[in-house]
Amino acid sequence: MEGSSTVHEPEQAKLVRTHFDRMSDVWGDFYTRDLTFANYNFLIRKRHVLDLFDKKGGRFLDAGCGTGDFLPDLAARGGDVYALDFASEMIDKARERMEQAAPGSPIQFYVGGVTSLP
């Protein structure tokens, strides 16, 4: 289409990754454990997602882990936990948060996408 502003896939991926890298400093605030009006929907969704996966042990992949908001809950279930996000700043924040929440936790962190898992 002539005259349209189409963003090509690599450019779009870069824009999205840059956005989430910038959001990494505040993203975890959405999932604070303290119930507030602002984070109510996030906490309810988190509880529903965790209820879908009620198994203990085994392997858990948190694809798009962001700042690691689900990681403590997954680690508490035992087994192997893998954290994956395509925004490196999100992975850095997730690693920092887990070091504070559960020092020595064996979670493995990866920067990448689900179409090219390490």
Record keyword descriptors for this entry:
single chain, 118 residues, alpha/beta, globular
Characterise this structure.
This protein has 118 residues and is an alpha/beta fold. It has helices at 9-27, 40-52, 71-75, 88-101; strands spanning 59-63, 80-85, 108-111. The protein has a three-stranded parallel β-sheet. Strand 1, helix 3 (71-75) and strand 2 form a beta-alpha-beta unit. The protein starts with 8 loop residues before the first helix and ends in a 7-residue tail after the last strand. The mean pLDDT is 83.
Short description:
The chain has 118 residues and is of the alpha/beta class. The protein has helices at residues 9-27, 40-52, 71-75, 88-101, and strands at residues 59-63, 80-85, 108-111.
Helix/strand structural class: alpha/beta
Proportion of residues in helical segments: 40-55%
Beta-strand content bin: 5-15%
Number of helices: 4
- Gyration radius from CA atoms, angstroms: 16 Å
**How far is the N terminus from the C terminus?**
37 Å
Average pLDDT over all residues? 83
Question: What topology does this entry show?
Answer:
Blueprint: H1 9-27, H2 40-52, E1 59-63, H3 71-75, E2 80-85, H4 88-101, E3 108-111
Parallel strand pairs: 1-2, 2-3
Helix pairs in contact: 1-4
